[in-house]
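Sorry to interrupt, but I need a hand with the structure work. Could you write out one complete protein record for me, on any chain you like? Could you add the entry underneath, on a fresh line?
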Amino acid sequence: MADNDVLMTLDALKKMEGDLEYLKTVRRKEVAERIKQAIEFGDISENSEYEDAKNEQAFIEGNIISLEKQLKNARVVDSSDVNIDVVSEYSIVKIQNMDSGEIMEYQIVGSVEAKPLEGKISNESPIGHALLGNPVGSIIPLTVPAGSIRIKILDIRK
């Protein structure tokens, strides 16, 4: 995997393409109309409507640039490509905190799809990165905000 690759599923790619299209075709026009209306109010040097619209325009353009860059570097991962001999991107891994006994299950995903509260952690996160490449039975020491823990890989699946 190249350093600038952005891992994602086909669904995430399609959603990102849709978001980009919406920003380019709908949001750009909406904010351009707001700017036009604000200019019609007169003196733009003290016009908060104009300032707000310009700030929103900058925000939208920044999002467009970011999405275009991510799409340019997108690498789509298919579930049939997922290796389950060791933890890999898009595998689902069941782990146990060896200190507390707590058992958790996570899917290792690309950063654009990470939703920790839904059990999807980024391959770039400390835990996700530490798990990658390890087989079932591995015990991995980790430093987390609360201190040091050890986690054991109990299961890997697609």
